[in-house]
Amino acid sequence: MGKRFLITIITIILSIACLNADESIEEQTDKKEFSLGINAGAVSGMGLSARWFKSRRGVQVTFGAFGLEEDIVKYERDYIRERELYSFGLQIMTEFKKHKTGRYYWFVGGSCFMASSNISNNYDHYKGDPFSLSDEDRMAILAFGGGVGMEHKIAGKLHFIADVPFTLFAALSDDMIGVIPISLQLGLMYKF
Questions:
Q1: Which of 8, 9, 11 is nearest to 19 (CA)?
Q2: Residue 44 carries which DSSP code?
Q3: pTM for this one?
Q4: What is the pLDDT of residues 112-136, one digit of tens each?
Q5: For residue 145, how many C-alpha atoms fall within 13 Å in the half-sphere facing its CB?
Q6: Following DSSP, what letter does each residue of 109-128 receive, concatenated?
């Protein structure tokens, strides 16, 4: 209970700090920006991303679904093991410096990674045995964090994204809580 409370308090503090950044850093504009691309990181999630900026505030949503592998496991019969990974992420950003080719921003966010593994067998054609087995394991990891990030134009409307978050995570199936002091999130976005 104490660890979850601490994670909640730190996440709230990072959110307030990010959303209440000093308004006098740069003049506000009402220009809206929209980007689509790919992103990978502990806080942002992993997969396809959509990013919106208006004035100095921004939001990024990320979703990914991946079939990791399918292999055959040998027991008394052949079984097929399928593994999948799902990722959802949300990130809130506040720009603190803008330049000709990009911007620097503070961010806070969270993501959920869910992995599942399913083991099953097919009908045994050789022995005529309709025996079937099905076993499924699931695991979820929640990650929360905040830090500093940058967006830099690399060609035309294509932008490179790099974030450096401080991340707290909790593995729900193993009742484990941990900290990743510094990690790296990377992405490519196309601005419309």
A1: 11
A2: T
A3: 0.69
A4: 988 877 666 554 444 544 444 455 6
A5: 29
A6: EEEEEEEEEEEEE--BTTTT
